[in-house]
């Protein structure tokens, strides 16, 4: 969510390799693909806590 907002604020420059925002956005998307989205992570934590 935060990285998507940052890209929107910076416009097209935010998606280029010349700007750090693009790097953070790609890392966030890769992490989401590898480990699941926020809702999935919340479910895992709730299960571990026995909720």
Ends apart, CA distance between termini: 25 Å
Beta strand %: under 5%
What structural class should be given to the helix and strand makeup? mainly alpha
> What is the helix fraction of residues, given as a range?
over 70%
Please tell me the total number of domains: 1
Computed Rg:
14 Å
What characteristic shape results from the CA principal axes?
elongated
Low-confidence stretches: none
Mean pLDDT: 87
Described by strand count, sense and barrel closure, the largest sheet is: none
The count of strands amounts to 0
SSE string, helices as H and strands as E: HHH
Report the total helices: 3
Domain Acyl-CoA dehydrogenase/oxidase C-terminal: 2-49
InterPro entries: AcylCo_DH-like_C, AcylCo_DH/oxidase_C
Keywords: Flavoprotein
GO molecular function, one term: oxidoreductase activity, acting on the CH-CH group of donors
């Amino acid at each position: 969510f935060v990285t998507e907002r940052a890209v929107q604020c910076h416009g097209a420059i935010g998606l280029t390799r010349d700007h750090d925002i693009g790097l953070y956005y790609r890392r966030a998307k890769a992490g989401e693909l590898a480990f699941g989205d926020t809702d999935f992570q919340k479910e895992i934590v709730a299960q571990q806590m026995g909720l």
